[in-house]
Amino acid sequence: MTDRLSVIFSALADPTRRAILARLAEGEATVTELAEPFDISLPAISRHLKVLEAAGLISRSRSAQWRSSRLEAAPLREATAWMERYRRFWDDNFTRLDAHLKRLQEDDS
Amino acid sequence: MTDRLSVIFSALADPTRRAILARLAEGEATVTELAEPFDISLPAISRHLKVLEAAGLISRSRSAQWRSSRLEAAPLREATAWMERYRRFWDDNFTRLDAHLKRLQEDDS
DNA sequence: ACTTCACTTAACTCCTTCGTTAATTAACGA
DNA sequence: TCGTTAATTAACGAAGGAGTTAAGTGAAGT
After folding, report:
1. Which of A15, A24, B25, B45 is 20 to 30 A from residue B107's alpha carbon, by CA?
2. Chain A (34-53) residues lying within 8 Å, Cβ to Cβ, of chain B
3. What would the pLDDT profile of A13-29 be if each residue is shown by its tens digit?
4. Above 90 in pLDDT, residue A99?
5. Which pLDDT does position A43 carry in this prediction?
6. What are the residue ranges spanned by the domains of chain A?
7. Nearest CA to CA, how far is A109 from chain B (Å)?
8. Residue A109: its pLDDT value, please?
9. CA–CA distance, A69 with A17 (Å, rounded to integer)
10. Distances (CA, A) of A84 to B8, B64, B78
């Protein structure tokens, strides 16, 4: 489980971490600010942030005693890129396009 | 961790399972066929398939003693839908669009 | 200097996941 | 019916989350 995609997907597999990302979409926030909506301890949040950072989903900076987190969505691009490979299996437009291309190919023969 | 997205993301967090999905993109396959490229036991594969099925990423059918798996990509749509919320944080076009919309809004005032 | 604030690290528990081998089920073929 | 093939279930162990409380770090405020 040492590959990037696995790290990204398992970071996203936790609802608390997804909620943290959602919060960060509204702007940077400190650890205590991020912890506020949740009923779990600060150390637990601290570790969630570590996981998100390891996945590249956030970056962190410190000023004085505050460590503020910032959303870094680039890994989501990687993840979606992987999923795109399967788009034709779910997307109606793609399915139609696929059928269209198939028809063209048959016309070729 | 009982929500759909978590189940989907953690199903995708395993490289073996992603490889299985990749294989299934080429067509249905039986358990032994799916197991073939991997250096792990059949029971292990069997459980991976169970996880994928629980996430809705595959469906299974049986004929005689063979259980064949089929890719069901719909959950990937859900997962990408969630990620799309963050697209403006990574996609250049979205960033430009965003800036454009901001400019329009400023013109309104 | 001492305290307080913001956060992390350590040590521990509980539960789940991923793998194993051995046993079981279920269907087919002779 | 008996053996073979395909796959699952059972029972187990190692490793890894995710949570806890308690202790430690480091900068700021007084």
Report:
1. A24
2. none
3. 999 999 999 999 999 99
4. no
5. 98
6. 4-108
7. 22
8. 45
9. 13
10. 15, 34, 12
